[in-house]
Design brief:
Blueprint (H helix, E strand, L loop, with lengths): L4 E10 L2 E11 L4 E5 L6 H8 L7 E6 L6 H4 L2 E4 L11 H11 L5 H11 L12 H13 L5 E5 L7 H14 L5 E6 L2 H4 L5 E6 L2 E7 H8 L3 H11 L1
Bound molecules: adenosine-5'-triphosphate.
Length: 233
């Protein structure tokens, strides 16, 4: 089975600050993976390396079998934790921009997602609330027929009721033989959609486990286990 993402002892520093330290992991197709860690633990750095936006200082990264680059960017859909559309754009223009940029953009899927997210093409992006901006970000990312989706903190700004709705969208709209990595510290709210979790602390991977296995062997929720693992480290 082709692994969608592989990290082999990947490290990255910013100045003297080690953001990632010897991370090794792999992600198989058809999985929704939670990337869990507190503020500053290295989640965004890991995502940005996988998306090919920054390079590691050492270690090997393989995305769909190749080093991150033009080819992998065409098959990886990255949702950064800050809006990637310009403030002068309408929602429709932001979608057109995405369509022009990525050949795997699916207009029909984007239309269905817009309805689901209660967004209109005429809305000005500058007038959207933080939660609505996140809905648009997610619409842009999931409207592509990508092999790997990297979603960095997709629901931090939306209220708890809308969160459930957005998670349903995520499960409905991602491609089934693709995989999704979702970074978050809102574990209790999101854990129901995860197949497996990766927990990082201070740039190191401290746990990688199937969610089903966590529940069966420990009888704990991912949120409970996360609090325990972090208390021990
Ligand atoms: N461009 C940068 N320049 C300097 N330091 C950086 C840069 N990007 C990240 N860092 C540092 O690297 C560490 C990891 O940051 P990162 O953004 O990956 O964490 P995170 O888990 O995504 O945090 P959060 O949940 O707060 O978004 C932090 O100490 C951060 O200050």
């Amino acid at each position: 089975m082709e692994q969608l993402l592989e990290f082999e002892t990947v490290s990255k520093k910013f100045g003297s600050k080690a953001a990632l330290q010897g991370i090794s992991l792999s992600v198989n197709p058809g999985r929704i993976v939670g990337l869990l860690g507190s503020n500053g633990s290295g989640k965004s750095t890991l995502m940005r390396i996988a998306a090919g936006l920054i390079r590691p200082d050492s270690g090997k990264v393989r995305v769909l079998g190749d080093e991150p680059g033009v080819q992998s960017k065409a098959r990886v859909s990255f949702m950064p934790d800050k809006p990637q559309f310009e403030s002068w754009m309408t929602v429709g223009e932001a979608l057109n921009f995405q369509k022009d940029f990525f050949p795997d953009f699916d207009p029909d899927k984007s239309k269905r997602m817009l309805d689901f997210m209660k967004l209109s093409r005429k809305d000005k992006t500058s007038s959207l609330s933080k939660g609505m901006q996140e809905r648009l970000q997610l619409t842009l990312a999931l409207s592509r027929r990508a092999s790997l989706y990297l979603l960095d903190e997709p629901i931090g700004g939306v209220d708890p009721v809308a969160r459930d709705h957005i998670l349903d969208a995520l499960v409905e709209f991602y491609e089934e033989d693709s995989s999704v990595i979702v970074s978050t510290h809102l574990i209790a709210d999101i854990e129901r959609i995860f197949d497996e979790v990766l927990m990082i602390k201070d740039g190191s991977l401290v746990l990688r486990e199937d969610v089903e296995r966590i529940r069966l062997t420990s009888g704990k929720s991912v949120d409970q286990l996360f609090k325990e693992v972090y208390a021990e480290c």
